[in-house]
């Protein structure tokens, strides 16, 4: 769509906010959407509860082009940067009330079911439930609880909110909703914004760039190898809101569609996950191919974080408590990194060198993750242990992939943990203690002493070293029971089908 | 809301009278985002923003403080230290003079405010704070209560002792005896709206402060003291808070005083709002306790004598710790009669933030101790804890005197527990659970039914008073103001329902207005569950004064005896004729009848002698019971609340919908306190759990899978409270204890219920797993 007279770089960020187009030629790289809404736009229905993406009071919808339509997803505006919104449609709570003053179905249901007390978290709940209802008008209790994992309420105990959520569709259907009825106009408006140009706002170090494509990203990073790459900003957002770190210059990559999505190579039996695939999008595909992995994803962050955060980001930031790396390492995943036109593919476990140190060169970026599909006879499980079941950071996480030989002995086994060392790490001594042995309780019990060779966990506010070690061993016991036992429950589950 | 509507003068019932389950008055505004919290108000032109600089050591002398880079930072207008406080540098709620606004030369906890930066924007102020260079000479710090001197610990306030009979002798003579210790953690309030204040300077000495506070009058007095001006110069206004839970009873003082001092110094409006991490680090929390118990009992399980010590981590200053530890002792009995009892408090000084009020105010901690004793006795005798509970319940005519020598006159716990036990099939389910556990080696289930009796009234007798101001305008619309504050509990709606009922007018004719010290003076904190009891009665008193004047007027004008003047829905029957309420008001105005009244109420019957430990501190008791069932994963300690049944007593409810909301919300908050909400300080005194990423309150997916909540509809207050209702804010919080005991029951199953798990709180998965391990080893 670039006309010859136009510069290949657009120096203006453009997006839709409710029913208006916003164009910003001057905006800081670390400007959060929440501050933009509250301070610049004086839209104060959206609240700040924690400024770290954990309470949901700041929830808004962000719509992005998705083929011929728009996907509207809930996000935490407190840790979402304005610079990442080019070509998006931001919808805030102010957009819901009808022109005649009557309430939106989501709002009326909450009123009628006494879903608000102090009311401070309420706009966030309204938006979370709005997002759910649009995609799933008749949700199960399980779907509601998952959609609300990222929203804290301190007053109601949630019961009336869940009851309201079950009733929303009796107040109206999504097809009657303005975001549905006006979709074609919004699609057209967003398409007009996305003119295929790179966006660059600001000067010198204090600027941000939104590359137009993956090739453009590679070019930008060759030019600016020290630039901060920001995708979902579920981690980098906190560097700004909590630590007031200077993150500029920034490259916002969340809108590069080529790096988003999962493809299946049926012949190689391998999934390739684009680095920018969100947890939410990954879950939909993984549920089909690796259900145990998909279940794990439900326990990462809240819905807003899963909509924003990316699999590539979870790996690239190198955290020892990221939730996907142990599972991916157990599955023997590989990682493709790209610098300019050069690509290299390495075993994922080799990417994590030490705490805060990864095998990524300046100017290089994580492009894709390749996950071999487990065979029908591979036992795979991944379990997260945290203080609170949902929306919590792992105390530890164990992932297991094992194949048994015809003789009932362990033919191959890969075990990886998060939260047990300075990086996501394989339990190689434990694996060795199991390798080739009959898969029995005795073998498992005998292998437990090998944990001391593999791990020396720390004590912190999430768990003591003693607990981490004991629970890590017990996860191996659970894996053994899981692969050998019948029907008795091996873990507590809230959802019968799970 | 409050749209002008035509009153239905033929209705047989008003809209929004007492007993109707109306939605919260602000519900429409909550869901649209139109409800205005202080940070949402349009800032007056020229508003500046303040931010606090916090100490980085737990205990130390400030040797040098270089703030030159702070002052030079972009946007900074002023930097305030203790020397800039024109009046008293103190915000101690009880006058202990131990709590500076800004620390002067000594810091006593990590996170204590030592200076304030005022800048053009909040971000500039916040960034500038980081540039301070402060040197400390560190002093030895007591972080954990266990570090206190065991013999002669430093206390923050004079402790209370309760004694009735000779507990020592009774315990020693008893056929059986056991002793033990329980640690029960604290709790952060985690109100969703953090602390905030906006101060607008006026002429002369005046300042108006918008404060997110449960106690406007105290904030008024603190601001006046800090500025060195009379209270009449200071007005505090609060329309609503985004949650309080006790965390905004005294803790708002800090922010309001800093904003006011800066506003008066600079003669510009000043707003202050800490980040969540700073809010959690720099403001007080629920006290954690170490409870020691020594109890003598008979072979049936009847308690003969009990001795409790309740040691609390109070932090560096008294704040409300005296009253909190008092209330712990007042509730060391819960629903149980102790023939002889001794209970003592130890309000420990620690170099941590000064702990404060939190829903229940020490009462839940007191009750946790009582319930642990019950559990210990049950395991010692191999009986169902519920059996031991019932055996020790207060009687109705005898065995009914509390450790503080108050006779329990309104005991309904027997009926509450019997109904709940039958309703939730406690006995059958206990058997089903035993059968399940027998076949399930990893996942174990547990069940517990725990009661609550909660004393209602401020134990500081003078706080049991309230005022209200009611105006009736010439169009018949009513302006209602009272001294209580709205933090989500629906107080304003309940009080408006009382006024609507009294005048017999639809509730949309009653306008609820922001609480302000200029309209109703010398108010008490909206705390101790007292909001509706006190303010409802004060508003009723005001409305009745006006009503009586209207009756006098109508009687005289129409020559009708007063007893023939009856207020009907939106109209008044005067002898044989009916007049619209609005018409009567207009006539009264024309006849120069005063249509405004200040109402007042003080709670009768209460008195308390703290020195003697005797008296009648509580006007009445609220009761309830909960039965919880959990499942526990014995490989990781993770658990799930499968089902909860609650039967709770609110007397005759003013608004059953709002009351049920308090019961459900209180329960889940109480459950959070005892399960996943864990406060962790490191050895340097730094709070490590200072934001929702590290401090875990319950989520929707943590609430009971099956959650049946009922109000005891047959109950009415034995005392003549407002429409015979009962307080509801705090008592249901205590019902969360049933979850702790259900987890304990599940853990105990790994050792055949022969050993008391002695599970400390919060029962995080880690504590649960460690208890499982402990019991497995002990059972070998």
UniProtKB/TrEMBL annotation, chain A:
Q: Does the keyword Nucleotide-binding apply?
A: no
| The keyword Metal-binding belongs to this UniProt entry's keyword annotation | yes
Domain 2Fe-2S ferredoxin-type, chain residue ranges per copy: 11-96
Q: Which SUPFAM superfamilies match?
A: 2Fe-2S ferredoxin-like, CO dehydrogenase flavoprotein C-terminal domain-like, CO dehydrogenase ISP C-domain like, FAD-binding/transporter-associated domain-like
Q: Which InterPro entries match?
A: 2Fe-2S-bd, 2Fe-2S-bd_dom_sf, 2Fe-2S_ferredoxin-like_sf, 2Fe-2S_ferredoxin-type, 2Fe2S_fd_BS, Ald_Oxase/xanthine_DH-like, Beta-grasp_dom_sf, CO_DH_flav_C
What's the Enzyme Commission number for this chain? 1.17.1.4
Q: Which residues belong to any copy of the FAD-binding PCMH-type domain?
A: 201-376
State one Pfam family annotation.
Answer: FAD_binding_5
SMART domains per the UniProt record, alphabetical: CO_deh_flav_C
Give the matching CDD domains. Answer: fer2 (cd00207)
- Entry's Gene3D superfamilies? 3.10.20.30, 3.30.465.10, [2Fe-2S]-binding domain, CO dehydrogenase flavoprotein, C-terminal domain, Uridine Diphospho-n-acetylenolpyruvylglucosamine Reductase, domain 2
| Superkingdom per UniProt | Bacteria
**Which keywords are on file for this protein?**
FAD, Flavoprotein, Iron, Metal-binding, Oxidoreductase
Show the GO MF annotations: xanthine dehydrogenase activity
Q: What is the official name of this protein in its record? A: Xanthine dehydrogenase small subunit
**Gene field:** xdhA
From TrEMBL, chain B:
EC number(s) of the enzyme? 1.17.1.4
In Pfam terms, one family for this protein is MoCoBD_2
SUPFAM superfamilies for the chain? CO dehydrogenase molybdoprotein N-domain-like, Molybdenum cofactor-binding domain
List, alphabetically, the InterPro entries matched. Answer: Ald_Oxase/Xan_DH_a/b (IPR000674), Ald_Oxase/Xan_DH_a/b_sf (IPR036856), Ald_Oxase/xanthine_DH-like (IPR016208), AldOxase/xan_DH_MoCoBD1 (IPR008274), AldOxase/xan_DH_MoCoBD2 (IPR046867), AldOxase/xan_DH_Mopterin-bd_sf (IPR037165), Xanthine_DH_Mopterin-bd_su (IPR014309)
Q: Which UniProt keywords apply?
A: Molybdenum, Oxidoreductase
Domain of life, per UniProt, equals Bacteria
- Membrane-crossing segments per the record: none
Kindly give the Gene3D superfamilies that the UniProt entry links to this protein.
Aldehyde oxidase/xanthine dehydrogenase, a/b hammerhead (3.90.1170.50), Aldehyde oxidase/xanthine dehydrogenase, molybdopterin binding domain (3.30.365.10)
Q: Annotated Gene Ontology MF terms?
A: xanthine dehydrogenase activity
Protein name per Swiss-Prot or TrEMBL: Xanthine dehydrogenase molybdopterin binding subunit
From the broadest rank down, the organism's phylogenetic lineage runs: Bacteria, Pseudomonadati, Pseudomonadota, Alphaproteobacteria, Hyphomicrobiales
């Amino acid at each position: 769509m670039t006309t010859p007279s136009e510069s290949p770089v657009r120096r203006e960020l453009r997006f839709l906010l409710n029913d208006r187009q916003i164009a910003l030629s001057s905006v800081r790289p670390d400007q959060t959407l929440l501050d933009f809404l509250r301070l610049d736009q004086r839209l104060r229905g959206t609240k700040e509860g924690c400024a770290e993406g954990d309470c949901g009071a700041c929830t808004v919808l962000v719509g992005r082009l998705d083929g011929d339509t728009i996907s509207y997803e809930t996000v935490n505006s407190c840790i979402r940067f304005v610079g990442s919104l080019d070509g998006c449609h931001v919808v805030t709570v102010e957009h819901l009330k009808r022109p005649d003053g009557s309430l939106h179905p989501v709002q009326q249901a909450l009123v009628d079911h006494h879903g608000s007390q102090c009311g401070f978290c309420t706009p966030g709940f309204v938006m979370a439930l709005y997002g759910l209802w649009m995609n799933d008008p008749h949700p199960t209790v399980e779907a509601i609880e998952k959609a609300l994992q990222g929203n804290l309420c301190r007053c109601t105990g949630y019961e009336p909110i869940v009851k309201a959520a079950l009733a929303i569709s009796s107040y109206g259907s999504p097809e009657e909703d303005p975001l549905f009825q006006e979709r074609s106009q919004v699609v057209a408006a967003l398409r007009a914004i996305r003119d295929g140009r790179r966006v660059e706002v600001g000067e010198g170090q204090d600027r941000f760039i939104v590359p137009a494509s993956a090739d453009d990203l590679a070019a930008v990073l060759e030019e600016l190898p020290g630039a901060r790459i920001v995708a979902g900003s579920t981690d980098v957002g906190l560097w700004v809101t909590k630590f007031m770190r200077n993150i500029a210059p920034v490259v916002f990559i969340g809108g590069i569609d080529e790096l988003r999505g999962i493809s299946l190579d049926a012949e190689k039996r391998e999934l390739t996950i684009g680095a920018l695939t969100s947890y939410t999008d990954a879950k939909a595909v993984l549920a089909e191919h690796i259900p145990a992995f998909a279940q794990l994803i439900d326990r990462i962050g809240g819905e807003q974080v899963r909509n924003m955060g990316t699999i590539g980001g979870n790996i690239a930031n190198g955290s020892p408590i990221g939730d996907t790396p142990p599972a991916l390492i157990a599955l023997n995943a590989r990682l493709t990194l790209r610098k300019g036109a050069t690509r290299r593919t390495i075993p994922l476990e080799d990417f994590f060198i030490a705490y805060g140190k990864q095998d990524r060169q300046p100017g290089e970026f994580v492009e894709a993750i390749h996950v071999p599909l487990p065979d029908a006879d591979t036992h795979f499980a991944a379990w997260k242990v945290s203080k609170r079941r949902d929306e919590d950071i792992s105390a530890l996480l164990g992932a297991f992939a094992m194949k048994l030989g015809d003789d009932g002995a362990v033919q191959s086994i890969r075990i990886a943990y998060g939260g047990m060392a300075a990086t996501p790490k394989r339990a190689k001594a434990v694996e060795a203690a199991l390798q080739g042995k009959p898969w029995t309780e005795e073998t498992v019990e005998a292998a437990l002493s090998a944990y001391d060779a593999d791990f020396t966990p720390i004590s912190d506010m999430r768990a003591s070293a003693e607990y981490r070690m004991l629970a890590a061993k017990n996860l191996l016991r659970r894996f053994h029971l899981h692969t050998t036992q019948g029907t008795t429950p091996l873990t507590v589950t809230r959802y019968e089908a799970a | 809301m409050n749209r002008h509507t035509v009153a239905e003068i033929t209705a047989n019932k008003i809209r929004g009278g007492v007993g109707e389950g109306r939605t919260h008055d602000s519900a429409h505004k909550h869901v649209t985002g139109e409800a205005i919290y202080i940070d949402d108000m349009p800032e007056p032109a020229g508003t500046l923003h303040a931010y606090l600089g916090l100490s980085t050591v737990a205990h130390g002398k400030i040797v040098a403080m270089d703030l030159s880079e702070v002052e030079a930072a972009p946007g900074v207008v002023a930097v305030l230290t203790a020397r800039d406080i024109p009046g008293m540098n103190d915000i101690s709620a009880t006058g202990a003079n131990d709590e500076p606004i800004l620390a002067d030369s000594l810091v006593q906890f990590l996170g204590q405010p030592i200076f304030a930066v005022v800048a053009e924007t909040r971000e500039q102020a916040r960034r500038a704070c980081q540039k301070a260079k402060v040197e400390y000479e560190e002093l030895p710090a007591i972080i954990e209560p266990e570090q206190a001197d065991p013999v002669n610990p430093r206390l923050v306030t004079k402790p209370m002792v309760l004694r009735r009979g000779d507990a020592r002798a009774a315990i020693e003579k008893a056929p059986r005896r056991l002793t033990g210790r329980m640690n029960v953690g604290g709790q952060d309030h985690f109100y969703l709206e953090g602390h905030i204040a906006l101060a607008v300077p006026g002429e002369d000495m005046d300042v108006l402060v918008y404060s997110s506070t449960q106690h406007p009058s105290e904030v008024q007095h603190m601001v006046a003291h800090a500025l060195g001006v009379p209270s009449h110069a200071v007005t505090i206004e609060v329309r609503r808070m985004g949650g309080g839970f006790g965390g905004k009873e005294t803790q708002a003082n800090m922010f309001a005083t800093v904003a006011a001092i800066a506003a008066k110094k600079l003669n510009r409006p000043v707003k202050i709002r800490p980040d969540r991490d700073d809010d959690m680090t720099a403001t007080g929390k629920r006290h954690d306790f170490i409870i020691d118990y020594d109890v003598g009992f008979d072979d049936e399980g009847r308690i003969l004598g009990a001795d409790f010590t309740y040691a609390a981590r109070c932090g560096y200053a008294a704040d409300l710790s005296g009253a909190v530890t008092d209330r712990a002792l007042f509730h060391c009995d819960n629903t149980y009669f102790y023939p002889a009892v001794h209970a003592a408090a130890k309000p420990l000084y620690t170099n941590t933030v000064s702990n404060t009020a939190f829903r229940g105010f020490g009462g839940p901690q007191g009750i946790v101790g009582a319930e642990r004793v019950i559990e210990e006795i049950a395991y010692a005798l191999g009986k169902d804890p519920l059996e031991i509970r019932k055996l020790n319940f207060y009687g109705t005519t005898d065995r009914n005197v509390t450790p503080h020598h108050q006779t329990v006159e309104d005991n309904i716990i027997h009926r509450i527990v019997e109904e709940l036990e039958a309703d939730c099939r406690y006995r059958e389910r206990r058997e089903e659970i035993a059968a399940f556990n027998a076949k399930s080696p990893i996942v174990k289930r547990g069940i517990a039914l725990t009661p609550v009796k909660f004393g209602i009234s401020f134990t500081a007798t003078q706080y049991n008073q309230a005022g209200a101001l009611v105006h009736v305008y010439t169009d018949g619309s009513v302006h209602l103001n009272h001294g209580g504050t709205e933090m989500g509990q629906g107080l304003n709606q309940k009080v408006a329902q009382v006024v609507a009922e009294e005048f017999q007018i639809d509730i949309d004719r009653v306008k609820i207005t922001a609480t302000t010290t200029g309209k109703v003076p010398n108010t008490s904190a909206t705390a101790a569950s007292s909001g509706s009891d006190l303010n409802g009665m004060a508003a009723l008193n005001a409305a009745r004064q006006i009503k009586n004047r209207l009756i006098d007027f109508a009687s005289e004008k129409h020559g009708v005896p007063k007893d023939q003047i009856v207020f009907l829905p939106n109209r008044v029957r005067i002898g044989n004729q009916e007049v619209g309420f609005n018409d009567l008001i207009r006539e009264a105005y024309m006849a120069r009848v005063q249509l405004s009244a200040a109402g007042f109420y003080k709670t009768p019957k209460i008195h308390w002698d703290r020195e003697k430990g005797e008296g009648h501190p509580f006007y009445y008791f609220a009761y309830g019971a909960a039965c919880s069932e959990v499942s526990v994963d014995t490989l990781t300690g993770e658990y799930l609340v499968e089902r909860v049944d609650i039967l709770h007593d609110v007397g005759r409810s003013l608004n059953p919908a709002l009351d049920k909301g308090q019961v459900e919300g209180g329960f889940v908050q109480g459950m959070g306190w005892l399960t996943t909400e864990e406060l962790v300080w490191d050895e340097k005194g730094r709070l490590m759990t200072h934001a929702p990423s590290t401090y875990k309150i319950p989520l929707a997916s943590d609430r009971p899978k099956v959650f049946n909540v009922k109000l005891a509809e047959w109950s009415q207050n034995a005392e003549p409270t407002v429409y015979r209702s009962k307080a509801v804010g705090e008592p249901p919080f205590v019902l969360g204890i049933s979850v702790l005991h259900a987890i304990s029951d599940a853990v105990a199953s790994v050792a055949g219920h022969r050993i008391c798990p002695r599970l400390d709180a919060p029962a995080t998965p880690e504590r649960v797993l460690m208890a499982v391990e402990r019991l497995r080893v002990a059972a070998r």
